[in-house]
Each structure stands twice: as C-alpha cells, then as structure tokens.
Design a protein that fits this description.
Strand content: 35-45%
Shape: globular
Distance between the termini: 51 Å
Strand order of the largest sheet: 3-2-6-9-10-5-4
Largest sheet: 7 strands, antiparallel
Number of helices: 3
Number of strands: 12
Radius of gyration: 17 Å
Order of helices and strands: HEEEEEHEHEEEEEE
Helix content: 10-25%
C-alpha cells in the first residue's frame, strides 16, 4: 500500500466517522431560501448563530446542491426556523428535484426579494457577508437585516437521520 492510498482510506474512514458522530447530534431544522434569477431553497441543519454584535449567522451549503448557484449569486438570504408541525416542508426542501416552491408550500416575497415561508416559528433575512469554500461545501455568513421571531410552535429537530419533535 502506498502513502496516498493509506491517506485515501483514512479520509474515507474519517468521513464515515463524522457522519456517524453527527447522526447522534440533535440539530435544529431550518430552510434556507434565496432569489437571484429564480427562487431556491434547501433544508439545513448547519445553521449557527455566530455573533450578536453585529448580528451574524452562518450555514453550510453543498457545492453540488441545486441551490448553490443561486446562493452564490444572491446578495440576501432567508432563514426559516421550522416547527415540529413542518416535517413535510423540511422533507420537500430536502428532496432532490422537487418543485420546492409549488403548493402546498406557502410563501411570499419578503425584504430584498427573498422568499419568506409562511407559518414558521421564526424567520430572518440576512445580507451575505462571506462565502468561504469548505471542502465540498461553502460556509455562508450573513448579517441579519429583517425578520420575525414571533411565530408559534415547538422546534423541529433532526436526529438519527430523521425529523423529530422536541420532547421534554
């Protein structure tokens, strides 16, 4: 075995380890939306609050994602925190080839033309500050410019490869 094939095997093992470990990590579920020449969106579990001053958040998006070309071009992004009643919406935005903005998805144009989903516990619109390459993804950082955190519902979480409601 050569050093290169050892490295390749080690990387494959590390990738599997990362996936296995994060299946045990519960994460909140969000839908990220953007609009450039067309609306685009995807389900994300990588959403993170970065800073309070200025108010920044981040998420990862796969470079092979159908949403990436729109996000790469957009100036603003929408983030929608999903409630446990929105499993179907999460699945729609996670499904390849789905018409994510067709019925029964309910949405409208929000600030800066960003698609804003209806009936979510919270949504934000952010101005994209940075898009940084990170392996087979890009890390996107945005500054909050608008939103509403007054919606009802308990959060939807992702754990063990499934969408779940939060239990006490």
């Amino acid at each position: 075995m050569t050093a290169t094939s050892d490295l390749d095997t080690s990387q494959v093992e590390a990738t599997g380890l990362l996936r296995s470990a994060f299946r045990r990590h519960a994460a909140g579920v969000a839908v990220i939306t953007a609009h450039a020449r067309r609306p685009a969106g995807f389900t994300a579990t990588s959403l993170t609050s970065v800073a309070a001053e200025p108010p920044l958040f981040s998420f990862g998006v796969g470079t092979a994602s159908s949403s990436w070309p729109v996000i790469a071009e957009a100036g603003y992004i929408g983030v929608h925190i999903l409630g446990e009643h929105q499993r179907e919406l999460a699945e729609t935005f996670a499904r390849r080839g789905a018409d994510r903005f067709a019925g029964p998805t309910r949405w409208s144009r929000g600030p800066h033309g960003v698609p804003v989903l209806e009936d979510v516990p919270a949504w934000l619109v952010g101005r994209i500050i940075t898009r940084a390459p990170a392996g087979d993804h890009h890390l996107v950082v945005a500054e909050v410019v608008a939103g509403d955190a007054g919606g009802a519902g308990r959060p939807l979480v992702y754990h063990g490869g499934r969408f779940n409601g939060l239990r006490d």
